[in-house]
Write a structure and sequence with these properties.
The chain is α+β, with helices and mostly antiparallel strands and about 300 residues long. Helices cover about 65% and strands about 20% of the residues.
Length: about 300
């Protein structure tokens, strides 16, 4: 009996060991195997776009294609497409629209008839009681007109005094807030904390940004002056794209076409490390409490 129990515990232990090893391996894959992305945009006579996101050596893929004549979204598992076509969605939309039109056509005439009958009844009742009610209302209005006029004047001046006092209080509170936050952000210690946080965010954004970038843009306007202005704006942005994107100016025709390819990768470990560094930063927590005016 003891031997059987030990055998069962041994099998259970081996199973748990393999299970936790599998979970650990999966966690390592999620953290360290990058998610790769590839974006391609083409502008010619038509606008086309393609997006490909893959993970774990293209075992899991997501593909999106956009164009004037085709719109396609599909998931791929080990190269086998699990296609999500837009035809079913279109059919459902068309069916719903047809049902809506049918309902409106059949229900609206009956609803209109009922509304007309109700209106006629209301008009007949109102005409009977209009004469008596008008006389009574006329007498009441004469009595209340003088009193209501005096009351409105009093309320008007009361509102002016109230708005003036609230405005003064609001200006004072804004002034106090401004002095508090300017003093907070002018502190050298807080400036260093913000710089460290911005450095972490910069690393994260730099990691997400595409590592591969190439393409060309052909830009032109009929007026050469406008072409020159566009080129001057692109010249300001030159440090971002450098020699990776070729700019081809056209001074004699209006044209805008090109092709751009972007590719990069994202590792979850890098973003997790950045998030944890910000989350466990005590100085940042103290600054956040100071911004919320909480007690440290």
């Amino acid at each position: 009996m003891l031997h059987i129990i030990l055998t069962i515990l041994k099998i259970l232990g081996v199973f748990l060991l393999w299970f936790f090893a599998f979970i650990f391996l999966l966690l390592l894959l999620v953290l360290f195997v990058p998610v790769k992305y590839r974006i391609k945009a083409i502008k010619g006579e038509e606008v086309e776009g393609r997006l490909l996101i893959s993970w774990l050596f293209y075992i899991f893929c997501f593909r999106l294609e956009y164009g004037s004549q085709r719109k396609n979204i599909e998931f791929l598992l080990c190269g086998i497409p699990l296609k999500i076509s837009g035809k079913k969605k279109r059919r459902k939309r068309e069916k719903k629209e047809k049902e809506k039109i049918y309902y409106e056509e059949n229900s609206l005439p009956s609803i209109k008839k009922e509304e007309e009958e109700l209106k006629r009844e209301e008009i007949s009742h109102l005409q009977d009681g209009e004469t008596d009610s008008k006389k009574r209302e006329h007498k009441k209005r004469k009595k209340k007109s003088i009193f209501s006029f005096i009351q409105k004047i009093f309320q008007f001046f009361k509102k002016i005094g109230y708005t003036f006092s609230t405005l003064c209080d609001r200006i004072k509170s804004i002034k106090d807030e401004w002095e508090y936050y300017t003093g907070l952000f002018s502190d050298e210690k807080n400036i260093q904390i913000i710089k460290k946080c911005l450095g972490q965010v910069k690393k994260g954004v730099g990691h997400i940004m595409p590592r591969k970038c190439k393409g060309f843009l052909r830009i032109g306007m009929k007026d050469p002056a406008w072409t020159g202005r566009i080129l001057s704006i692109l010249g300001i942005l030159y440090p971002l794209y450098g020699e990776k994107i070729k700019i081809i100016p056209e001074f004699e025709q209006t044209i805008f076409e090109g092709e751009i390819l972007l590719a990069g990768r994202i590792r979850a470990f890098v973003l997790l490390r950045m998030g944890l560094a910000l989350y466990f930063n005590r100085e940042l927590k103290q600054l956040m409490k100071a911004l919320k005016k909480e007690e440290a």
